EAL domain-containing protein (Stappia taiwanensis), 690 residues
Amino acid sequence: MTDNDNKAVASGPLELHSAVFAAAADPIYVCTPDFIVAEANEPYAVVCGLTREETLGIRLPDLIGAATFSRRKPFLDSALAGHPATLQDWVNHSVLGRRFFDVRYQPVRDGSGAVVGVVAFGRDITDLQQAGDALRMHRSVVSQMSDRISIIGRDFRYRMTNESNALHHRTSTGCFVGRHLADVIGELRFHAEVKQRFERCFLGERIEYDKQERRPDGTMAIVSTRLEPFRNQQGDIDGAVVILRDVTETRRMENRLERLALEDELTGTANRRAFETWVAARLDALAGRRQDLALAAKQGFSIVFIDLDDFKIINDTVGHGAGDRFLCEIASRLRGLEDDRVHAARIGGDEFGLVIDGADRIAARSICDKVVRAFDGFHFTWEGMRFRAGASVGLASVDPDLAREAVPDVRHVLQWADHACMKAKAAGGRQVSEHRAFDRVAARRRDEIRHLAEIEQALAENALCLHRMIIRDVHTSAREMQEVLIRLRSPSGSLRGSSMLLATAERHGLMRRIDGWTVERVLTRLEEDPGELPVALNLSAESLGHPEFAHDLLDRLDGARHLACRLIVEVSETAVARLTERAWRTLAGLRQLGCRVALDEFGKGFSSFSLLRENTFDIIKIDRGLTADVATDPVKRAAISGIVGLAEALHLPTIAEYVADEASFTPLGALGVRLAQGDYIGKPEPWPDA
């Protein structure tokens, strides 16, 4: 082997060493025994804020500063003595600022084994250090919290617990690790109360509840318990975090404040807020939204309003002090009626109320009669003056049938009892008046059932028919279009108008059949008579949003576009709020085929201005509430003028509906209305051959 070959072999490891040294991402430098930098890579030069070439040949005290060097020197000396050393310290990085590094000092030896320098390998572990600090801080906080905190695995064994929980059980935190929850709280309670809650938490649910628990000193406590899913690094639920907090005093204070909030300050009885809460709870029970009330409350209840007769005489004669004393006496007598089913409250100045659980109206009426007799026989004496008490009593009963049919809320039920009370007072007082809401609801229900049967029969026997109403130009009286109206021929032969028909049909899901029947008749008529005026017909939100109805209608008109341009689909302003996204797509599809879409009853609620700006409609029909009395009502004229101005800005024609007489018709032209319909223009008439 030649000398050149020996040099090549020797240079190979040196070149490899240099390549690895240069490629390292972590900072590395080599220094001599007198602490002069003999070699450094680019990452180390960046830490110092220099180029690699600038770092070479500089003494470490000059490069990193005397104070920093004094901290590093013991570790450098150890490495120079042949013993590797490791240091963790903060370093001022020229680019990243203050960073935490792990530095290993390794001896560099020559071929004979003598130490000829030190190589220092640095690694930035700032993130790891911060995570460790956060973990130590977290552990410190958890250990010092008064809340009792534990982590329990899916095997129901403790992974950790804090000092508070360990002290509660008079043991150490280490003794908890690995213990089964059932061993701590008992097998019976674990299976009866706790296991199912933990299993729900393991599925991802957050569980919160209060429980009674005995303290180490033997006293009872209310403990708020919260279970939170505990997730591992992969995000999988690996257990539950359990947080226990003694809330005994908090709950006592809450209960006291709640009691004060629900108690009348003068009489000590429940107040109006409590009364309304009772009523709301019972309505929820009847609707199936609550299960925590007694069975009697779920079967029905009665509301009683009691208005004291001639109370003002006591106040005016002997003063408010006497009046307050009188009210306390009355409250005391009402409390004497209370039991599990009867609850009394003061609901106003001289008004009291009862909530009576149970569906027995006769029993409730008997209690009301008892109140009247008790008050009538009570005499109040103050400073030698004697006053006779008395009360007007209103009774309203609610049972499951009434709750289902009338769907009352608290306000309605209280109004029923209040109206009955006012009726008793108007009749002379000292008596009971009963509100018969159910009788009226039942009558409406019977009418509804009869109407529904007639509609079903008419659809089955083809007893529906169409009338039309002509729509004319306000200025020329030219016939511009016609609106078709549905009529139902009753078994007696009389015709029923569309208002009853449509209201009942909408409530019972029959509008799609009625709309389908109407569309078919209209399109057939337009096909048979090319000279027929354009036809406006009303379609329900239910039909427009139904996929099958929409598909059939669009498909039919797509094959007969000459009919589509003669069709105006009306949508009432009240129906707009019920239009689904599919219904809007149906309307857009109809317009693309050439149909026009009219916004009917506009002005009834002024809720569709934004939709007009979106170019959704082609015609605006002004509601009857504005056209009626327009001749004498300046506010209505101003409203119509505003609607016309809006329509003109959008280039839309307007139609005034229900123009009943000449007085209503005359102002329309001056207001800018283009078209009109109503009895004055032309009364509804049978549509020939329809």
